[in-house]
Every structure is written in C-alpha cells, then in structure tokens.
What we know:
It is a multi-pass membrane protein. This protein is mainly alpha-helical. It has helices at residues 2-32, 37-58, 62-80, 116-133, 145-169. It has a domain at 38-101 and 108-169.
Amino acid sequence: MMEEDLSTNNKKGVISQAWTRLSQWYQGVVDKTVPWRITRWLSSIILVCLFLARVLVTQGWYIVTYALGIYHLNLFIAFLTPKIDPAMDFDADENGPELPTRANEEFRPFIRRLPEFKFWYSVSKSTLIALGCTFFECFNIPVFWPILVMYFITLFCITMKRQIKHMIKYRYLPFTHGKPKYQGHEDTGKVIGSPK
C-alpha cells in the first residue's frame, strides 16, 4: 500500500516538475519578445488575417468572430484609458481633474490601464483561441451576420465617441511619439586639463 502511494507521489512530482519547466520555458520565450514591438504586432496582424481568411473561406463561425471583435474592442479601450481615471479623482477643483498641461504644474505621466505588452499578448492569445474554435462545429452557430456587423460598428462608434469625449474633457493623449530629446553641450573633442 505504501509503495503505491510513493509511486503516485513520484508521478505527481514528475508531472508537476515537467509542467513547471514548460511554463518557465514559455515565460522565457514570451519575455524575450518584449523589445520586438513591431515584429510582435505584425505577427498578431498576420494571425488576425489568418483567422479572418478562415472565417471567410468556411463561411461560418460568425459568433466567434463577433465575440473576438468585442473582446479586442474592450482591450483597445483599456489600452486608451489611463490607469487612474481623472473622472474618479475626488480632489478636483471646480473645473475637474486634468492632467498637467504646463511646465509649472505637477508632472503626472500617462500610465495605461492595460500596458502595450499585455494588450498585444491578450490580442494574440484570444485570436489563437478563436482560431482554434473554428475547428469545432459546435461553435458554428447559424446567424444572420450583417446584423452582427452593423451592431459591432454601432457599438464601436458609440464607445469611441465616449472615449474621445473623455480624452478631450480631461486633456490627455494616450499616444507618445518618442522620448523628449534634450540638448546638451556638444563634444568638441578637446581634453580639458591635460598636461602639455
């Protein structure tokens, strides 16, 4: 009896150790992709195009496509939204809270609710899951797809209108075009204080 328990525990230990090693290897691969922003997004765009091509060729899985579109829209809104919502700032003056716009105001950097890397990771993972769903007939629910398209376009317009109004009201822009460049003294190549 004790030998069976020991062999069961050893099997569980081997499986758990293999799973831990696999997850560490996977996390290492994901971590190595962090500096490759353009390559990551191009691969995600190709993945979405493969998914759309599969849906168009097979003429099905419109519910899966609609659910994926709604999920991507929610991720995009979280990507555009600041982590600390100025609308919820209770220390506001009569004009409401806003991000600093002048040099003499307190510096508060724009921090996203959903960072870029997590946004990319979630888009890629959800697209792979949706692509996997297209191989199972149980997810191919017959619907009249033009209604889903019109509903998604309406939802997208309403949501983006609300987000743009929020950005205008609290004066923030979620996109940056690079780091600020500071001008310093030019290096003339002269060594100061060297013996003659």
